[in-house]
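Lecture notes, part 5. Sequence design as translation. It can be helpful to think of inverse folding as translation between two languages: the language of shapes and the language of residues. The source text, in structure tokens, appears below.
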């Protein structure tokens, strides 16, 4: 099982409440509806563990569990559904970093 991890800040002028409404009404239903997405959760950063007064360098972290990464990248990612959501997402997010990770066993 692979993980896709996204980290990003919101663009200037984007209200977190508007973005989070989009997540729950549009992003979650669409992406969680894909058969190659086993799970998907967006996390809002709220602080720094070792520096209680510090501000996190990013606003959100997303984690996807993808059991078939080759299939997801070959069929889903370039498809109309994901590209439409990605286009909407880019209206909210600034400089997203998209990483692929696997568990160390």
């Amino acid at each position: 099982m692979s993980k896709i991890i996204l980290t990003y800040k919101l663009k200037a002028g984007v209200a977190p409440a508007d973005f989070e409404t989009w997540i729950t009404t549009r992003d979650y239903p669409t992406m969680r509806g894909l058969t190659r997405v086993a799970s998907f959760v967006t996390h809002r950063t709220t602080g720094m563990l070792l520096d209680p007064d510090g501000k996190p360098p990013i606003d959100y972290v997303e984690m996807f569990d993808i059991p078939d990464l080759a299939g997801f990248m070959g069929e889903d990612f370039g498809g109309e559904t994901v590209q439409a959501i990605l286009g909407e997402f880019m209206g909210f997010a600034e400089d997203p970093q998209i990483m692929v990770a696997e568990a160390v066993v």
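The translated text above is only one of many valid answers, since several sequences can fold into similar shapes. Strands lie at 2-10, 39-44, 60-66, 93-102.
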